[in-house]
Amino acid sequence: MASGLCPENVGKQAWPELLGAQVSVAVAKIHRENSNVRPIVVPEGSGVTKDIRCDRVRVWVEGRIVSRVPIVG
User: Fold this and answer.
1) Could you tell me which of 6, 11, 16, 23 has the fewest CB atoms within 10 Å of its CB?
2) Cα–Cα distance between 65 and 50 in angstroms, integer?
C-alpha cells in the first residue's frame, strides 16, 4: 500500500500491520523494510510541520504503542 505522496521507487510506504504494535518493534521493522526512510517517533498531541518528505515516516504513539498507521511523508 503506497501513501500516494511519494514515488513508488522509494520502497514500502505504509505499514498498516504496525497499528497497535510496540514502538521499538515498529521502528525496527520500518528500518528493515525500507532503508530509504527514517522513522520519527511522535507522541500523540505533538505539533509537527505539514511538509511532505519522502525520506521520513512519522510513527505516532500513545505511550509506547503505535496509534496511527505509519506512512511515508
Assistant:
1) 16
2) 23
Cell numbers representing residue 60 in the block: 505516532
What is the arithmetic mean of pLDDT over 29-48?
96
Tell me if 73 sits within 8 A of 53, measured CB to CB: yes
Output 64 or 6, whichever has higher pLDDT: 64
Distance CA 32, CA 48 (A): 25
Identify the structural domains of the chain with CATH numbers, from first to last: 12-72 (3.30.10.10)
Give the separation between CA 50 and CA 62, rounded to whole angstroms. 20
